[in-house]
Write a structure and sequence with these properties.
heterodimer, A: 306 residues, mainly alpha, MetI-like fold, 13 helices, B: alpha+beta, Rossmann fold, OB fold (Dihydrolipoamide Acetyltransferase, E2P), 2 domains, six-stranded mixed β-sheet, five-stranded antiparallel β-sheet
Chain lengths: 306, 362
């Protein structure tokens, strides 16, 4: 029905830019950004971690071998920061898992307005961590914060100052982190729970399984892959935690909430400008995270294969 | 084993009846098939017996005990799901064992009982595998094993062969029937496949539009359908139905054919007001012969292998008046040819066109 010449000009029009060229036009900007902002810094910082470079001096980097790594790993203070980070990650991810999974179990039952409730619950994780840190600082404020009031303290006298008390500050940060990120765990668990077909529960009811037995033998194993992914993501994030803590405590009081990432920031940018050493620390954190992730992923695969 | 009794059991979704009040008593060890087209309420009935679906009204008794408001787990029944419903994250052994574990049966007895059913169903070599990798037939065997290992009071099966290949269905049909006979287990079986129902059941409950149409043995349902629905639904092709009007001992059919009413029916038919009835006969009730009393024109001709089915039109080209007649597979009947046939007087049935119900000889 189409005239032959018109058809061929149409094809010529397409040939002016080939599919291949279009692909490259779309990919190139992203590729350039990725190389400049991710890949180059990744390798440059690896190089810097073996030098004594400082970003505010004009001196060129001098190769010092493993001196930065040796210094960091022999520093007891650094081990303490890692311990604090580990404790923070354990408490925070643990509570997020429990609360997130619990909320998912509740929201899995459809009730009037469950859609709206789910959306509302998701709001905290959409906020900026710095903003969250700032307003939780106000919530924890010993003189006018609502947190102590909700705990039953009617007067600031004798009420705990969460962010200024050594053994409470880490808990304060954990509570805030749990408030912010439990919804994330809930979201993944909820999609996992919704994917479990009803007939499995029908079969289990016929098989005379109690609710607890059904939960243990059907719900938990079925939701486990997604739950583990949520835990993996949260663990990685917890080890990198910086903005929330920086906004709330800045690592204080003393070094009670000095997480590795906070210390890293201080080392790299605040007064010290020890770029080489900070790069080495960043690589240590990276190796720790990769190691932990591997443990999780191995478990995840084990669960998937059974 | 147990009896199952449904008393005025009904199910409503909103204002619509999925199952209208239904009475049914199933004897101990009986194999009853609920048969009907999709959406007729047969699966809902089965699910109400199992407790997976709550009844809107009526009472359900298993072994004389009222279980209407009992949870499925308290009814001592096994349910075989159409789509197998095996636990995907467990091995075949764990799937079968699940119910025993849920009831705290000792590990030694568990192994023993799983071994027994696995041997019975010849799935011993599959016990370590996951259900995901099994063929449809093997999955169905595992589902049956899971039901059998319970030693329940009754088996409920929801189209257990629906997801299988046609030729494999034959094999499994025989296996289920043999299992039933060996276990002497009360079984309620749902299917839309009338051949399955005929082959397996002691009694068939034909359902349509949320109502029971007929309860009877396969023989009764086939030869003495209670109404026009059953007559059409059972059989492949279904019963031939030819409306006619009575005139001096004959039935006047389409195309002006006169069918001499058999002696045993005259009394019944003479009392029908208006004189209009529907003549029903199975394809095998007709015998093609040159001296036959009825004549028709060949409309189409199907060879079924062992026999042929002739589509005969009573009134010219009108497809509404086609009847199906069993014929010799070696004879040749070209389309358009005129054929004469007779009906076996013991195998004809009559229906009231207004109520649709079968008429009975007096």
């Amino acid at each position: 029905m189409t005239a032959f010449p018109a058809d061929s000009t149409g094809r010529q029009g397409q040939r002016q830019i080939s599919d291949r060229a279009i692909k490259w036009i779309f990919i190139t900007p992203t590729l350039i950004l990725l190389i400049l902002l991710n890949i180059f810094p990744l390798f440059y910082s690896l190089y810097l971690s073996f030098t004594d470079f400082s970003a505010i001096t004009k001196d060129p980097p001098v190769w010092v071998g493993f001196a930065n790594f040796g210094k960091l790993l022999n520093d007891p203070q650094m081990w303490k920061y890692f311990a604090t980070t580990g404790r923070f990650a354990f408490l925070s991810v643990g509570l997020q898992t429990l609360i997130g999974f619990g909320m998912a179990l509740i929201l899995r039952e459809k009730f009037n307005g469950s859609g709206i409730v789910t959306t509302l619950i998701l709001i905290p994780m959409m906020l900026s961590p710095v903003v969250v840190g700032l307003f939780w600082k106000l919530i924890y404020n010993p003189s006018f914060g609502i947190f102590n009031y909700l705990l039953g303290y009617t007067s600031p006298v004798g009420a705990p100052d969460w962010l200024a008390t050594g053994n409470l500050a880490l808990w304060a940060v954990v509570i805030t982190d749990v408030w912010m990120w439990s919804p994330f765990v809930m979201l993944l668990c909820l999609s996992g729970l919704n994917a479990i077909p009803d007939y499995l529960y029908e079969a289990a009811a016929i098989d005379r399984a109690s609710s607890w037995f059904q939960f243990r033998r059907i719900t938990l194993p079925q939701v486990m892959p997604l739950l583990l992914i949520a835990v993996l993501f949260r663990t990685i994030e917890a080890f990198k935690s910086f903005d929330l803590v920086m906004g709330m405590t800045g690592g204080g009081p003393g070094d009670a909430t000095e997480l590795v990432a906070v210390n890293l920031y201080r080392m790299a940018f605040q007064g010290q400008w020890r770029t080489g050493q900070a790069s080495a620390l960043a690589y240590i954190v990276l190796i720790v995270i990769i190691a932990i992730s591997n443990v999780y992923i191995r478990n995840l695969n084990k669960i998937r294969e059974g | 084993m147990a009896t199952i009794e449904l008393r005025q059991v009904a199910k409503k979704f909103g204002d619509v009846y999925a199952v209208k009040p239904l009475d049914l008593t199933i004897a101990d060890g009986e194999f009853v098939v609920l048969l009907g087209p999709s959406g007729c309420g047969k699966t809902t009935t089965l699910r109400m017996i199992s407790g997976l679906e709550a009844t809107t009204s009526g009472r359900i008794l298993i072994d004389g005990k009222d279980v209407t408001w009992k949870h499925p787990s308290e009814r001592d029944i096994a349910f075989v799901f159409q789509l197998f419903a095996l636990y995907p994250h467990m091995s075949v052994r764990q799937n079968i064992e699940f119910t025993l574990e849920a009831q705290n049966v000792s590990p030694a007895e568990r192994t023993q009982r799983v071994g027994d059913v696995a041997k019975l169903l010849e799935i011993e070599h599959l016990l370590a595998q996951r259900p995901g990798g099994l063929s449809g037939g093997d999955r169905q065997r595992v589902t049956l094993a899971r039901a059998l290992v319970r030693r329940p009071a009754a088996f409920l099966m929801d189209e257990p062969l629906g997801a299988l290949d046609a030729d494999f269905r034959h094999t499994m049909r025989a296996e289920i029937k043999r299992l039933h006979l060996a276990q002497h287990a009360t079984t309620v079986y749902v299917t839309h496949d009338q051949i399955e129902a005929m082959a397996m059941s002691d009694r068939i409950v034909v359902m349509s539009a949320a109502e029971v149409q007929q309860v009877g043995t396969p023989h009764e349902v086939y030869h003495d359908p209670a109404n026009l629905f059953v007559a059409r639904f059972i059989g492949s092709p279904g019963m031939n139905l030819a409306p006619g009007k009575m005139a001096d001992g004959h039935l006047l059919l389409a195309g002006g054919h006169r069918y001499l009413i058999p002696a045993q029916w005259r009394g019944t038919l003479s009392q029908v007001a208006g004189g209009e009835v529907i003549l029903g006969f199975r394809p095998e009730a007709a015998t093609v012969s040159d001296g036959g009393s009825l004549a028709a024109e060949v409309y189409a001709n199907d060879l079924h292998g062992a026999y042929a089915v002739l589509h005969l039109s009573l009134d010219g080209e009108n497809p509404e008046t086609v009847v199906h007649v069993r014929a010799d597979r070696f004879a040749h009947y070209p389309i358009g040819q005129s054929v004469r046939f007779d009906l076996n007087p013991d195998m004809v049935r009559f229906f009231d066109p207004n109520s649709g119900r079968a008429l009975r000889t007096q």
